[in-house]
Amino acid sequence: MKKPKINIGVTGLNAIDSPGPGIAVIRGLREAESFDVKIIGFAYESMEPGIYMHDLIDKTYQIPYPSAGTDVLLSRLSYIQEKENLDVIIPNFDAELYSFMKLEDKLRQMGIHMFLPTISQFEERHKVNLSDFGKKYDIDVPLGKAIYDSSEIFALQQEFEFPLMIKGKWYDAYIAYNMEQARTYFNKISAKWGLPVVLQRFVHGTEYNVTGLGDGNGNTIAAVPMRKQFITDKGKAWAGISIDDKKLLAITDKFVSATKWRGAFELEMMKSSDNTYYLMEINPRIPAWVYLAVGVGQNIPEALTNLAMGHQVEPFREYEVGKLFIRYSYDMIVDRSEFEKISIKGEL
Amino acid sequence: MKINENLAISESGFLFNPSTGESFTVNPIGAEILELMREGKTEAEISESIIRSYEVDSKTLQKDLHDFSEVLRHHQLLDQYEETKN
Hints:
The complex is a heterodimer of chains A (about 350) and B (about 90). Chain A is an alpha+beta fold. Chain A has twelve helices and 14 strands.
């Protein structure tokens, strides 16, 4: 039987040392069993490697940064829609999600489907609100507080103790071992990502992550836990292994059913020395290591696309345990004319 | 002393704990002891088997077996139910 062809727009093409999820998502989509795809890449910068990966991406358009506002984004997407007739968009950056969520209805009217968390889910799980989130859903989270001025750190040092984590509201996290470092990181992060900056109690332990998918009705469609095997200096997993941890899966189910989570997610967990799991962060999107989930039998990008298209999706029941992903760097040779096209015309 | 049943132990002495993602390597005697533990042998039976196969006195073996089981316990490789029972 001939598979339907779906046109899918994907962001996060920055397959760099701290990669966006786009390329992993596209690999999952290309391996989908229930449909064929035409992949339209959305890039912010002309140096995003995915733009030049023509075996994975059929055509790329530059799109405006979220700071340009939703009107500018909508206008650009309308232009792209006229040419490409998109069925689905999968946004993969935290910072752009809000704009896409705001545009969800308008895009649907244009024939473009997405499967994103609701704005209240997005806000509630935000790292700025994580402490309240933990209390509300009875999930262990480390003590955290959003601050707007570096002088607040001094007043809070009794409560938090050093070392403590200093986190940006979108990205970046540093461990501060003393007041000087805490102030320096506060300034560095607030200059880059704005206010507030989040202070979080440091938890010693081993990092585990879960990537999954909720159907919006409280059901877990997919969930694959992974232990980071090798971590870069930015704290990103360079290698990881799928594991069978019932407790992690139970926390994931609890998170999905309690919040009725809609869309993909990544739970960042820390297992302390007394075997308590702390939920450190909830990323409301597919993570860059999602290809491990695809490789062990849960094609999350495919399932998400089917949910976006309004199809019934059966929950995955199993996955292979003990499979590793190992990331690698790769140099492409690119003709100057390609770089010129994306830079001047914003399309390639 | 019972080994966690979920552990994947290969003949080469490579151990993988699927619930934590941790992996370890043990030498051939370590692998042999783990296999005996997996078969449900008691500590006395394991000692007996090792003494039969290798040149080692009982006192040294007891000490080494004790150290080995402590390492296994530290890495949470022993059966948790058995551990709580004890």
